[in-house]
Amino acid sequence: MTKTCLECGELLIGRADKKFCNDQCRSAHYQRIHAVESPLIRSINNHLKKNRSILANLNPDGKTKVRKSTLVKEGFQFKYFTSIYTTRENKVYYFVYDQGYLPLENDFFALVRNQDI
Predict the structure, then answer these.
(1) Going by C-beta distance under 8 Å and a sequence separation of 6 or more, which residues neighbour residue 44?
(2) Boundaries of domain holding 70
(3) pLDDT value at position 89?
(4) pTM of full prediction above 0.85
(5) Does residue 97 share a domain with residue 56?
(6) What count of other Cβ atoms lies within 10 Å of the Cβ of residue 86?
(7) Is the pLDDT of residue 31 over 90?
(8) Residues 19 and 60 in one domain
(9) Total Cβ atoms within 10 A of residue 34
């Protein structure tokens, strides 16, 4: 039984479980398969990464307080977060992966880092 490269169709020589003839074909195949991700998913993932980065940069010690205007100025977009945590006191924390924020009074936000992750 002859096997061919999944990307270019060349005859494969070598290991029985070999799938690609070289690294270029392996890389091209991976890129082609993952390019089908919709632009919407890619865009949302980019927003999430940026939001997490902003929170992490403004909160190096794991707990701080900032104004909403500071977050907005950095480009933070409040509609993109990964989870919500509600405390027993009904305080709602929004998390972007391990970085979270809690809306406070007077346009302030408490920034926290989830230590459990």
Answers:
(1) 80
(2) 44-113
(3) 96
(4) no
(5) yes
(6) 9
(7) no
(8) no
(9) 9
